[in-house]
């Protein structure tokens, strides 16, 4: 007669292993309700290790690119690990290569769709082997007449830039500039209205704006917004390799026009929970 599996038993096993409800319920059924045996069986199957790691923040890793031979499109991928040590591991980098190749072949930006099947199995196997959480975070595809790519030497920043003309060396130079300077938008007119509204609020709150007549305040706001746009728009920025020339002029002199750029930096936007070492040890002992 099969043992009755209660909700409280499933809850306890979930809390002790970090695994999903259905997996815990199945394990308890196979162990006839014996929680310790269920844990032992789960450990033997190694599923628990991967599930435990899934709760950790993977904010390190690498970014990688691949561009078509005719420079008509490129793919940009971020794959995360928990530590930089793993990000330099050959097995991890081989997995990254397989993700890039698959995304490139399919022009696929949907991570879930790309990972369905063999790639997800490869990821899970790598988690088991390395002992860290590993995840494909995002994929981007950029198409255009002339796609240039640049990857920083530590594989933490990568950029794709699309130009309408010019040679690929210029497109790569612009990508390198984007990697170094990190502009917000390609052109001033691309700046979101909500960003400009917020910037105006900040300017108005500055001490030197207090008591200014409306017409003077308006001129001051206009001048500072113009400066803000120049500093944060790619085409208006001094080119890093030659500050005497703006990026927009560099591109124009090459007989091209800037279409768009995409910049990935490893871990940007990921909130990493800061845990005190003493607290972490205490939690582990519990």
Please give a handful of descriptors for the protein shown.
three-stranded antiparallel β-sheet; alpha+beta; Tetrahydropterin Synthase, Chain A; 8 strands; 286 residues; 49% helix
Structural notes for this entry:
49% of the residues lie in helices and 19% in strands. A hairpin with a 5-residue loop joins strand 4 and strand 5. It has 13 helices and eight strands. With 286 residues, the protein is an alpha+beta fold. The two termini are 36 Å apart. The strands form three sheets. Strands 1-2-3 form a three-stranded antiparallel sheet. The protein has a three-stranded antiparallel sheet with strand order 4-5-8, with helices on one face. Mean pLDDT is 87; it is low at 49-55. It has helices spanning 7-17, 21-30, 35-45, 47-53, 84-87, 90-106, 111-115, 118-130, 168-181, 193-204, 214-232, 247-253, 277-285, and strands spanning 60-67, 73-81, 135-143, 146-151, 157-163, 238-239, 242-246, 258-265. Among the domains are: 7-53, Helicase, Ruva Protein, domain 3; 60-185 and 254-265, Elongation factor Ts, dimerisation domain (Tetrahydropterin Synthase, Chain A), CATH 3.30.479.
